[in-house]
């Protein structure tokens, strides 16, 4: 009786205080409670449901689910009626009869709890429970969560005031719908739809009586009654719900008996809550996508805000990942490497002309066990898990080639390229001014080539001393600026690449993603596109979020890119370092790369449809040479771009390009190939004097080489000129006449062929060195002039 009177008085006070502008409440409770009520608003602001976001591949398949809470909101009409009856029966059987506060239910709960000496029944209505869960959802700090769940009368009174507001704003069915979507059903399942899918692999609309009873029983203690942790206790709780439904005549005796005999759960039907990138099929690619989203101000002011938003806003995020090409790339990696190797292997494939990142694959899987890693070896360090790249070796020569062609240097430009070459004391220019190479710098060539290779021949054999001299003549500033425009930067710190004398041989740290994307610009005839992975985003209502599309700009003139393609295409012809990697009928272009001591090797290449960069490297400090380390379970005896990284590139690209049409590069212009030249007259077989006079009459300078050469021409007559008649020469340039010895052999005699004099002339990068109109450019020197090319 005392308890009954106490509840009656308190309930009456609450009702009076809430109905009559809070009058008289302070007399029955504390001043703090009264003040709390006075401060409460008359309307309850609904909490936005935290909904999981889904990341999709280009074909719509799921890459990952991002969520703080695994939730899929549904309408009440899409919840099985038996589920609605079950939750009402066990949580608030008079839900449709009372208002915000169920005085009868509260009294019954208090009496039963008092008689049992513990808490057996709750007195809160479903509306009050909805308010409580909503306030917890709104809480952003541990302190706010504690305040929303505090076991105090002040909190209960505040909760009731909000409940009254909710009852005024929404119908009973609307409140039940909101509650079912908000409630925690344990084991990471929030809301009735996610719970039905998680525990039973069905939709909420298809729940059966025993399934509904089990879920209804969970909300009281989601952890304690979780059937995946304690099936026995979960069944006991489920059976309580079934008996309560029978007691309320919601179900028949036959239905109850049948349900009670049903196993509480079928373990084979439980769907794991695989949330986050780590639980998806492409964790590294996924984390790169999340990094892109977190860097986009569209999704919030700060990175923390953006991270929270993309995990709670119910977004549908479509990406550029092509599952077929991704599988091709991973298959190639798996064929040529193993997760437990000392060395790592990685490859990125992108689409020229769009920047769409089609695939990222690597040898070590995601995780913390042996043979696993959290590092993405394809991504810059600025992204979550991004490793930050490796030095790219001679793949950097492509940017020197592009800068040289852009400066007007033709593809047949020759430079005497001995090995070793003493470059100590040579001067060069950077964006910050002139520099001087320290004494003692004598680089070597790793392959044999003709003494005076053209740009194409030097690229085919990756002749270091050619490209070192070419880069000094072009100037490092144009090369650095061009590389920067093509997305090349230090992947460790985002700083521009260093402008050092050996820049063309590899500098700083770059990633397969950067290199593939840069080479894709050559394939797209000079159109560079930033890496593009998020192609569309829709909000929870299906409305498209306004995002930028492909970010492309014409960095190189098409003719310049055509020239680069012509040079790198020859690398994949029989005489080139990439000749063994050629496949199919489409034109291919590529470049090898090996850094000092072969601590990393590369192959980057492309067709007009796809571009890829593959690397094999030591990724464990302290870095050491690859020789002696294991790859594909075997010891590496000779690491090279073509022999070690090349096969990974070849297998991935060969598979990825299946189904694409045959394509060809656009041939470079005659000017790009030969320079700004005029035709040379045909003087073979003429007397040296007549040939000399004829050339001089056309404005060329002429010199006659000492000695004779093997030739089919009559002894004492002109065997050929350098430049050859077919190549032409710049107006006014030096033409060298070679005299035949009449031996009728096609190749010049190595003993009689005169050697061009060595030059260490410093070339001004602001003027064309092959044009004799600019003598300060070294046009007449043997190292830079075409006459002695």
Automatic annotation (TrEMBL):
Residue ranges annotated for the PASTA domain, each copy included: 674-741
Q: Extract the Pfam families matched here.
A: PASTA, Transgly, Transpeptidase
Matching InterPro entries = Beta-lactam/transpept-like, Glyco_trans_51, Glycosyltr_51/Transpeptidase, Lysozyme-like_dom_sf, PASTA_dom, PBP_transglycosylase, PCN-bd_Tpept
Question: Region (Disordered) spans which residues?
Answer: 740-789
Q: Where is the composition biased (Gly residues)?
A: 777-789
Low complexity bias (residue ranges): 748-765
PROSITE patterns on file? PASTA
Q: Supply the alphabetized keyword list.
A: Carboxypeptidase, Glycosyltransferase, Hydrolase, Multifunctional enzyme, Protease, Transferase
What PANTHER family is this protein classified in?
BINDING PROTEIN TRANSPEPTIDASE, PUTATIVE-RELATED, PEPTIDOGLYCAN GLYCOSYLTRANSFERASE
Q: Per its record, how is this protein called by name?
A: Transglycosylase domain-containing protein
Name its species: Kribbella karoonensis
Q: What is the lineage of its organism?
A: Bacteria, Bacillati, Actinomycetota, Actinomycetes, Propionibacteriales
